[in-house]
């Protein structure tokens, strides 16, 4: 719950420990007690739909887009996922990028990010 709390706070949310545990239980499909990336996306999508606020989606995008260039690179994605306690192989990171990367440029732009968040 610690890493999830950090991410949620960086998105301007301020969940209690109990709320964090509820969020984890809600999306923890495999019952591991931790959230893997697909589960995280499901959670984020639900949060976004609850608030549906474009500002929050922009905020989330900025968390991933470390250098502020308007794109999420594989390295930036890996960095955030590592902070979430998610150890991913290069293949897994590339696969995640490919899934969201509609225009095939090897990174995720804001539109692709929004689409990914809304499609979950």
UniProtKB/TrEMBL annotation:
Keywords: Calcium, Metal-binding, Repeat. Residues 15-50, 52-87, 88-120 form the EF-hand domain. PROSITE patterns: EF_HAND_1 (PS00018), EF_HAND_2 (PS50222). GO terms for molecular function: calcium ion binding. It comes from the Eukaryota. GO terms for cellular component: myosin II complex. Belongs to the calmodulin family. This is Calmodulin. It comes from Trypanosoma cruzi. The lineage of its organism: Eukaryota, Discoba, Euglenozoa, Kinetoplastea, Metakinetoplastina.
